[in-house]
């Protein structure tokens, strides 16, 4: 079967940024699932000319697992991306790959180190063949002893302490943060190449991305004793008559305003007062006796950070 190519066109949900720092840059991705395509899309929105080389598909239009478990996500992630297909374990596939690499500025991968070796994609070898090529490698972990371990977003979040009480996380935070770090790494290697005139390689670890996200918890900011973990009465979720609101009156001037709305004349909005059970109870009681629309109107009038949460599940 011969290599094939096509371009996916869907309606983008975000306008491209006015700055196009990657305009004229060509990026080739071999990365499947979420982090690689998300990073590639970020680069495309920064002006890069982006292509993705996927394994040959048989039973479906794409061999990327993302297409099977979320076709909507796959379509959005590949908006404007040129898609190629080839078997990199064959001579024809390798020929297509190196034909592409000869005109590529940055190669993006998400294979484990052992898989990169089997495909002849070790950095030293690529750098010898394509001296100006840069490379960004997304691994499960940048720790050498763990880089070849199997893992996914859920295991990286669990390892970083971001999962609670057996509940699945609200989003794929490690994958999406890893994608942001990978697109940042693309900028880094290109800046380094501009100074040295030769290609550079950077590694991004999804485990390290989760650990970066977990820093506020390690600092105990988001634990139950932390002021953004529920200890501060101005920074909490509250039940109202008809649903929930998210209140983020953390700074003293915001906290003072919610106290004034609630009727706590003696509260000055200090962190110490906002931690007291009396202030928590007063705001809870106030919220429970009003509808969300009424609370939102008062918050808007007093310039208090508050968001209505629609259909919050029990």
Key features?
2 domains; elongated; alpha/beta; 14 helices; 16% strand; seven-stranded mixed beta sheet; 314 residues; single chain; Rossmann fold
Question: What does this entry look like structurally?
Answer:
This protein is of the alpha/beta class and 314 residues long. The protein has two domains: 4-12 and 19-217, Crotonobetainyl-coa:carnitine coa-transferase, domain 1 (Rossmann fold, 3-Layer(aba) Sandwich); 235-309, formyl-coa transferase, domain 3, CATH 3.30.1540. Helices cover 41% and strands 16% of the residues. It has 14 helices and ten strands. The strands form two sheets. Strands 1-4-3-2-5-6-7 form a seven-stranded mixed sheet, with helices on both faces. Helix 7 (153-160) crosses helix 9. GO terms for molecular function: transferase activity. It comes from Comamonas jiangduensis. InterPro entries: CoA-transferase_III, CoA-Trfase_fam_III, CoA-Trfase_III_dom3_sf, CoA-Trfase_III_dom_1_sf. This is CoA transferase.
CATH superfamily of the largest domain: Crotonobetainyl-coa:carnitine coa-transferase, domain 1
Structural class designation:
alpha/beta
> Would you list the SSEs in sequence order as H and E?
EEHEHHEHEHHEHHEHHEEHHHHE
Strand order of the largest sheet: 1-4-3-2-5-6-7
Mean pLDDT: 92
Q: What proportion strand?
A: 15-25%
Q: Number of helical runs?
A: 14
CATH architecture of the largest domain: 3-Layer(aba) Sandwich
Largest sheet: 7 strands, mixed
Can you tell me the overall shape? elongated
Contiguous low-pLDDT stretches (5 residues minimum) are: 5-13
Rg estimate, integer Å: 25 Å
**Which fold name fills CATH's third level, the topology of the largest domain?**
Rossmann fold
Helix content: 40-55%
CATH class of the largest domain: Alpha Beta
Number of strands: 10
CA(first)-CA(last) distance: 52 Å
Can you tell me the number of structural domains? 2
């Amino acid at each position: 079967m011969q290599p094939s190519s096509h371009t996916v066109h869907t309606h983008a949900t975000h306008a491209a940024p006015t700055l196009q720092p990657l305009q004229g840059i060509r990026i080739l991705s071999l990365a499947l699932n979420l982090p690689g395509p998300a990073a590639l899309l970020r680069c495309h929105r920064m002006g890069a000319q982006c292509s993705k080389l996927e394994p040959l598909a048989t039973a479906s239009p794409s061999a990327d697992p993302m297409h099977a478990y979320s076709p909507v996500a796959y379509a959005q992630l590949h908006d404007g991306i040129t898609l190629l297909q080839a078997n990199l374990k064959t001579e024809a596939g390798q020929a297509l790959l190196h034909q592409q690499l000869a005109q590529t500025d940055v190669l993006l991968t998400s294979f484990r180190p052992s898989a990169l070796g089997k495909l002849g994609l070790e950095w030293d070898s690529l750098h010898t063949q394509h001296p100006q090529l840069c490379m960004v490698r997304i691994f499960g972990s940048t720790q050498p002893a763990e880089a070849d371990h199997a893992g996914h977003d859920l295991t990286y979040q669990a390892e970083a302490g971001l999962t609670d009480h057996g509940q699945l996380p609200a989003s794929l935070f490690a994958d999406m943060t890893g994608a942001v770090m990978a697109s940042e790494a693309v900028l880094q290697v290109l800046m380094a190449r501009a100074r040295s005139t030769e290609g550079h390689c950077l590694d991004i670890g999804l485990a390290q991305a989760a650990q970066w996200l977990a820093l506020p918890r390690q600092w105990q900011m988001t634990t139950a004793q932390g002021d953004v973990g529920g200890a501060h009465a101005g920074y909490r979720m509250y039940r109202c008559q008809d649903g929930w609101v998210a209140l983020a009156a953390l700074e003293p001037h915001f906290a003072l305003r919610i106290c004034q709305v609630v009727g706590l004349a003696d509260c000055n909005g200090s962190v110490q007062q906002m931690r007291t059970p009396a202030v928590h109870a007063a705001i809870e009681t106030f919220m429970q006796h009003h509808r969300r629309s009424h609370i939102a109107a008062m918050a808007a009038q007093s310039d208090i950070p508050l968001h209505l949460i629609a259909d919050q599940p029990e």
